Amino acid sequence: MKFTFRPKTDLGKISACGIGYFFATWILVGLAVPRIGGNRFIDWILFLLAVTGIVGAFISLFGGLIAIVWQEDRSLIGILLFILSIPIVVLLAGFLLGSYVG
Questions:
Q1: pLDDT at 100 over 80
Q2: 102 lies in a domain?
Q3: pLDDT tens across 41-92, in order?
Q4: Strand partners for 75
Q5: Domains contained in the chain, number
């Protein structure tokens, strides 16, 4: 088992891009809503960007898990991003399921 700095498998790279996409879209939405929000079309586009960011976070979590466990991608960035994606996905799942549970 060899430890590397960057992910070597394709799934590890996709996982790293997924969490990066999550942060990029949510920062973009957070900066754009106060400035250009209010228009129905723009609000829908920002909503879709936020949803695709959520999908990117879930892809990062499950892709990182598969890359680390089954494909044995033991990279420092991959493991750190997997650990970072766990609380993000737990919070997102709590917000998404909060209205249905309890």
A1: no
A2: no
A3: 888 998 999 999 999 999 999 999 999 899 888 899 989 999 999 999 999 8
A4: 4
A5: 1
CA angle 45, 50, 54 (to 5 degrees): 145
- CA triplet 71, 7, 28: central angle to 5 degrees? 120
**Does residue 2 lie in a domain region?**
no
Q: Judge whether 75 lies within some domain.
A: yes
DSSP for the chain, written as a single string:
---BSS--SHHHHHHHHHHHHHHHHHHHHHHHHHHHTT-HHHHHHHHHHHHHHHHHHHHHHHHHHHHHHTS---BHHHHHHHHHHHHHHHHHHHHHHTTT--
Q: How far apart are CA 78 and CA 74, in angstroms?
A: 7
Between CA 6 and CA 91 the distance in angstroms is 27
Name the residue range of residue 51's domain: 10-95
Task: Of 29, 86, 83, 85, give the one whose Cα is nearest residue 52.
Answer: 29
